[in-house]
């Protein structure tokens, strides 16, 4: 339960990813976070609810992006969802962020509320939910 954050050690209350997961479980958990995090726009209840990415250690499916290219008309991607490798494709504007990519992918899967691990081309670790505002253009 996210409200358990109230009883956590101070360093844990200052961990953005841990607070994000606590807020996912209960929006009131943000009141127990370290003071600087209480005003973090990525940790508001609405931002957390819209964030498609799983936190480290969560039991979640994986989506592997194997192509991410900029074209004159925007950014195109190709990806594989889950162990079955269901093919996903999309086109996003040049101004798109990792969060926009995640939302576009999530709209194509059977359960659009699923949080997932996003693996980028040549990436060794999944995208963190704290990277939702990172521009895609900087990754190519």
Task: Provide keyphrases for this structure.
140 residues; 4-stranded mixed β-sheet; 5 helices
Structural description of this entry:
The protein is of the alpha+beta class. The protein has helices at 10-13, 16-25, 35-38, 45-50, 98-106, and strands at 62-71, 74-81, 86-92, 117-119. A 4-stranded mixed β-sheet has the order 3-2-1-4, with helices on one face. Strand 2 (74-81) and strand 3 (86-92) form a beta hairpin. The longest helix has 10 residues, at 16-25. The radius of gyration is 16 Å and the shape is elongated. The mean pLDDT is 95.
Number of helices: 5
> How would you classify the helix and strand content by structural class?
alpha+beta
Widest sheet: strand order?
3-2-1-4
Distance between the termini: 39 Å
Helix content: 10-25%
- The number of E-state strands comes to 4
Are there runs of 5+ residues with pLDDT below 50, and where? none
Shape: elongated
Radius of gyration: 16 Å
Q: What are the secondary-structure elements, in order, as H or E?
A: HHHHEEEHE
The largest sheet, given as strand count, sense and whether it forms a barrel, is: 4 strands, mixed
Global mean pLDDT: 95
* Fraction in beta strands: 15-25%
């Amino acid at each position: 339960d996210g409200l358990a954050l109230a009883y956590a050690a101070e360093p844990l209350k200052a961990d953005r990813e841990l607070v994000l997961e606590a807020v996912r479980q209960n929006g009131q958990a943000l009141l127990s976070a370290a003071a600087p995090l209480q005003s973090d726009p990525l940790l508001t209840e609405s931002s957390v609810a819209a964030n498609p990415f799983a936190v480290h250690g969560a039991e979640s499916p994986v989506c592997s992006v194997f192509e991410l290219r900029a074209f004159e008309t925007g950014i195109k991607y190709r990806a594989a969802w889950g162990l079955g490798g269901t093919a996903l494709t999309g086109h996003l504007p040049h101004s798109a962020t990792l969060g926009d990519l995640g939302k576009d992918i999530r709209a194509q899967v059977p359960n659009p509320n699923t949080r997932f691990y996003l693996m980028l081309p040549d990436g060794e670790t999944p995208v963190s939910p704290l990277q939702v505002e990172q521009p895609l253009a900087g990754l190519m």
